[in-house]
Amino acid sequence: MHVSRKPLVAGNWKMHHGGPTGLDLAGAIGALAREVPHVEVVVAPPFTVLAAAASELEETPVGLAAQNLHVADKGAFTGEVSGPMLRDAGCAWVIVGHSERRQLFGETDALVAEKAAAAYTHGLVPIVCVGETLEERESGKTLAVVERQIGAVLDVLVAHADSAVVAYEPVWAIGTGKTAGPAEAQEVHAAIRRQLAGKAPNLAATARILYGGSVKGDNAAALLGEADVDGALVGGASLEAASFGAIARAAERIAASS
Ligand code: PGA
Question: Rounded to 5 degrees, what angle do the CA atoms 190, 4, 243 make?
Fold first, then answer.
């Protein structure tokens, strides 16, 4: 974490808490956010509860994210949700290119870049996810894969340098309980920042690079203590206010003391 970048802790609820339990959780996170003023807190509930969660979070500093968007504004795309619709629902953020979208729904690097661009067009900040599979890591391709994924979206990030957010999520660490060690995470985060710097030094300085993959209250401090880890994208541990709060508080302690 670097003093010039406000840490961002985002909760990706995935396909959980799409009804009343989501509103309860949003309310609890709204209260928690007031205890962590040095941390930017974002939650990404399912579509069905976004508008109600926006009302719940209205008087709080918590940002609301969607988990996906379609690149078009509107049209005959049954089952899809557009950027303008997400804005209407109260979102300021959207996750794009999550590995589950890439792996299970066939999203390509090019589509992820289009989605990131569409997000910015509609006033949403995309959290652009990248990360290698276990097979890619074991065959020594981690940095090449991440470089390719970042390369596809680099021009979009350059054009929005002051709000760029990337999440490095090694696929083998998502939902598995296996985390990249702090040094392993830092190595990839530093490589991403070097790649950004090669294109635009200001982008490298301002972009927040989050780590994701089995982040919990007990490993968050070590990960967030690394120089190029600017926050966390949290799945499983974001489904309860206590476990998400432990991560946000770990970030707060580091940010408040630096
Ligand atoms: P996890 O998920 O924290 O449950 O590993 C992270 C993510 O998929 O964003």
Answer: 75
Q: Ligand 1 centre from 243 Cα, in Å?
A: 13
Q: Determine if the pTM surpasses 0.85.
A: yes
98 is catalytic: yes
- Report how many helices (DSSP H) and strands (DSSP E) the chain contains, helices first: 11, 8
As a whole number of angstroms, the distance between CA 1 and CA 254 comes to 8
* Tens-digit pLDDT profile for residues 172-186: 998 888 888 999 999
- Report whether residue 170 contacts ligand 1, using a CB cutoff of 6 Å: no
Q: How confident is the model at residue 136 (pLDDT cuts 50, 70, 90)?
A: very high
Question: Is there a catalytic annotation at residue 16?
Answer: no
Candidate from 94, 218, 219, 234 with most ligand 1 atoms within 8 A of CB, to mutate: 234
* Cα-to-centroid distance, 198 and ligand 1 (Å): 29
Atom of ligand 1 nearest to the CA of 214: 5
Q: Which pLDDT score, from 0 to 100, does residue 176 have?
A: 87
Contacts made by residues 194-198, CB under 8 angstroms, sequence distance 24+? 195/147, 195/150, 195/151, 195/154, 196/150, 196/154, 196/157, 196/164
Residue 196 pLDDT: 97
Which among 98, 100, 160, 226 is annotated as catalytic? Answer: 98
pLDDT digits (tens, 9 = 90+) for 95-105: 999 999 999 99
